[in-house]
Design a protein that fits this description.
The chain is mainly alpha-helical. The chain has one domain: Rhopdopsin 7-helix transmembrane proteins. Helices cover about 75% and strands about 5% of the residues. A two-stranded antiparallel sheet has the order 1-2. α6 packs parallel to α7. The longest helix is centred in the first third of the chain and has 58 residues.
Length: about 375
């Protein structure tokens, strides 16, 4: 009996040693991958920041065909996307340089996790409000001004920015219901969702699923309407010649990118909350940082594919280049003095145009874009 007890104790000791060795080896591998992960995060942060700065420089002033409400919602989206590069990435990189997972949670890590979750949630709510605003603009064009007043638009934007911090407040409390730790796999301070399964699941029930339902319904209705309009125009315009599939070119990429970027992160959160287990190192890294890339892709699908946006951007760049380097502009022959006056005239005329009542942006004017594309 004594011999069996000794063997049992010895076996337990060996198992603990093996588990400790595996944990140390796994942690050493994560630390070895850390420089490469930091480079990826930095590159992604620069892309998101520069892309959204260019967008803000354009839509902060009026753009031909874009209503005031459209610019408000798109500025809100750009601000949320910019927060990825200006808040989320610097905070988490700062923690990754001064903290190790073995040090345990602290107040600063709770604050960082709170900002992470708030920015992610604000971005999803903003995307949902944009889809809802475009749905109203297309299906209720005559009632749009009464349904989506300036005050209501600002209320929706305020809700998208103020509701997430209230909902996610428990994450910021060091002694709250949610534990927070720094992950060496993803280099972020993230909540330990299995510490409170009910609260963790309620987050997805209040954020991801409602926003996804609103976006899917609104964009699916817009896509169906655009397809019907395309079929009608193809029969009556230019002897039935096939027209460009604007609906698929705009709405399908928007929804595909949204689900591709956000679904892995939400699935991992639900899996961690229910099972109490973590996924592999690189799977966690990709799932956590993939939504950040949505902040850069939004610049492409919501702005750069729009002809009015590109035209206004070129006008801004030309005016800025002439203001900074007039002599160089003349020497290079990029723009003559007549061209400069023309740019100023276009700028001033564009800013004084009376805005349309309905929202006309890259994905809400599918019916108009179909005709414009052919012309």
């Amino acid at each position: 009996m004594l011999e069996w007890q000794n063997v049992s104790v010895s076996g337990t000791s060996d198992n603990e040693y093996n588990l400790t060795s595996m944990d140390d080896g796994h942690r050493a591998m994560e630390l070895a991958h850390r420089p490469f992960k930091i480079v990826i995060i930095l590159v992604l942060g620069v892309m998101v920041t520069l892309g959204n700065i260019a967008v803000i420089s354009v839509i902060s002033s009026s753009v031909a065909g874009w209503s005031r409400n459209s610019r408000y919602f798109l500025l809100s989206l750009t601000g949320a996307d910019s927060a990825f590069g200006l808040i989320v990435m610097p905070l988490n990189l700062c923690v990754s340089l001064i903290k190790d997972s073995s040090l345990g949670p602290d107040t600063f890590c709770h604050v960082v996790a709170f900002f992470n979750a708030t920015v992610y949630s604000t971005c999803m709510y903003t995307l949902a409000t944009i889809s809802f605003e475009r749905y109203l603009a297309v299906f209720y064009p005559l009632r749009y001004t009464s349904l989506m007043t300036r005050r209501r638009a600002l209320y929706l934007i305020a809700f998208a920015w103020l509701f997430p911090p209230v909902l996610l407040l428990p994450i910021s409390l060091p002694e709250g219901i949610i534990e927070v730790h720094f992950s060496t796999a993803s280099l972020v301070c993230k909540p330990f969702y299995s510490s409170n399964v009910a609260y963790s699941l309620s987050l997805t029930g209040c954020i991801f699923f409602p926003c996804s339902i609103v976006m899917t319904y609104c964009n699916l209705r817009l896509w169906c309407a655009a397809k019907r309009q395309q079929v009608k125009l193809s029969k009556s315009y230019l002897n039935g010649r096939n027209r460009p599939n604007v609906a698929s070119r705009v709405l399908v990429p928007v929804m595909t990118v949204y689900y591709a970027c956000w679904t892995p992160c939400m699935a991992m959160m639900i899996y961690n909350a229910i099972s109490g287990c973590t996924v592999s190192e690189w799977m966690e890294f990709v799932a956590v940082w993939l939504p950040t890339s949505n902040g850069f892709l939004n610049c492409i699908f919501y702005f750069w594919i729009n002809q009015s946006f590109r035209r206004k951007f070129r006008t801004i760049v030309a005016r800025l280049f002439w203001s900074l380097c007039p002599e160089m502009s003349k020497a290079m022959g990029c723009m003559s003095s007549t061209g400069v006056h023309e740019v100023h005239r276009m700028w001033n005329n564009n800013n004084t145009l009376q805005e349309r009542a309905s929202s006309i942006s890259s994905t809400c004017t599918l019916l108009t874009l179909a005709a414009d594309t052919h012309v």
